[in-house]
Amino acid sequence: ASPLFEVRDLRVAFGRNGTYAEAVRGISLHVDPGEVLGIVGESGSGKSVGMLAALGLQPEGARVTGSVRFDGRELVGLPRRELRKLRGSRIAMIFQDPLSSLNPVMTVGEQIIEAVRLHNPDMSRHAAADRARDLLALVAIPQPDRRLAQYPHEFSGGMRQRVMIAMAVANDPDLLIADEPTTALDVTVQAQIMEVLAELQARLKLGLILITHDLGVLAGHADRVAVVYAGQVVEQAGVDDLFARPGHPYTRGLIASIPDMTVQNDRLFSIDGTPPALGQLPAGCAFHPRCIAAGEICRREAPSMREEGGHAAACHFAFAPSETIA
Ligand code: SF4
Ligand code: MG
């Protein structure tokens, strides 16, 4: 089967003083129909900027090149009007902060009905109201009739995110892009929202892209994972394979920073340093200033992607038989 969504050599550059600096430096990835792809990386890694740009939502003045195909159709260069039509119908998105995406002076019911009718202008109000009720049930919000008459501030953060998910799937999308959907929520609510998303994904056979800074979120929920650092995919693998034998030191660092997987003195491991600022890319491997495994070659030469059985990592020492780095 051909991929539902395929990104090839996507680059997003921002102009400053007549020169361009790339925030996204040639990302390639794909999502098959009904598949869950996790994209993980620190904030500023380019993971959100890249996926937003792929859907035509780049900031003003950004330069986007490469290819983004959805269901065989090229999206890069498509008129904004066409992209807008796709977003909200066949491609849906949810973000970290549901409150800022909801209208505070409209009831939740009105907003869902509006979302339903935006892409189904011929649907009657009555049918759209029925659909709104079904959608709340789909995301497990109890007492839908009472809830539909309420305003966003009467909902908890978790309930608001359920509403956003309901609105996102209102028009039966094929692809849902969720950018840090649980980051603003506390841990127990995070788990509930992930359950709702996972159940919906399975039931509606959605292609799902889960963007997160927390690799732990992806453990039970992604089929494959792409690890992004400094605007590039540095590792890509099936989720079990990624956790079992991470090939890139950055991925090993991310795994070690997952609270439940840390055994050392219950002190949370973190990767020292910060990602390079836009336009301040170090020579050689972009990760070398922070890498505990860096060798001489890393300061001179950017590693290319090494692949082994569908598992790819961009590190000079990935999958080396003599590898002893922890
Ligand atoms: Fe570290 Fe070198 Fe691998 Fe980069 S190429 S991740 S610096 S070991
Ligand atoms: Mg982000």
UniProtKB/TrEMBL annotation:
Annotated compartments: Cell inner membrane
Positions of the ABC transporter domain: 7-255
Cross-referenced InterPro entries: AAA+_ATPase (IPR003593), ABC_Ni/Peptide_Import (IPR050388), ABC_transporter-like_ATP-bd (IPR003439), ABC_transporter-like_CS (IPR017871), Oligopep_ABC_C (IPR013563), P-loop_NTPase (IPR027417)
GO CC terms, sorted: plasma membrane
Keyword Repeat annotated: no
Record's bilayer topology term: Peripheral membrane protein
Superkingdom: Bacteria
Major site of localization recorded for this protein: membrane
Protein family per UniProt: Belongs to the ABC transporter superfamily.
Protein name per Swiss-Prot or TrEMBL: ABC transporter ATP-binding protein
